[in-house]
């Protein structure tokens, strides 16, 4: 059973699965880097500070 590329709807290629080509894979990666895709959840303003020791978290 052939799968389809989530971007252009062409059949996927094993080398680039789940995409059909390097181009579609790169487009998807660029969308992640730009922040176009987000995972829903609670927003935490202290997210950058949670891994710091107590005295540095301020």
Ranges where pLDDT stays below 50 over 5 or more residues in a row are none
Query: CATH superfamily assignment of the domain at 1-36?
Result: Erythroid Transcription Factor GATA-1, subunit A
What average pLDDT do the residues reach? 85
Spatial shape: elongated
Order of helices and strands: HH
CATH fold group of the domain at 1-36: Erythroid Transcription Factor GATA-1, Chain A
Q: Classify the helix fraction into a percent range.
A: 25-40%
How many extended strands? 0
What about the largest sheet? none
Structural class of the helices, strands and pairings? mainly alpha
- Euclidean distance between termini CA atoms: 55 Å
Alpha carbon gyration radius: 18 Å
CATH architecture descriptor text of the domain at 1-36: 2-Layer Sandwich
Number of helices: 2
CATH class of the domain at 1-36: Alpha Beta
β-strand amount:
under 5%
What does this structure look like?
The chain has 58 residues and is mostly helical. It has a domain at 1-36: Erythroid Transcription Factor GATA-1, Chain A, CATH 3.30.50.10. The protein is built from two helices and no strands. It has helices spanning 22-34, 54-57. It is elongated. The model has no long low-confidence stretch (mean pLDDT 85).
């Amino acid at each position: 059973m052939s799968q389809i590329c989530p971007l252009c709807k062409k059949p996927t290629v094993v080398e680039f699965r789940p995409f059909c080509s390097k181009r579609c894979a790169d487009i998807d990666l660029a969308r992640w880097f730009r922040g176009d895709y987000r995972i829903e959840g609670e927003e935490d303003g202290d997210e950058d500070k949670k891994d710091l020791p107590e005295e540095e978290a301020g």
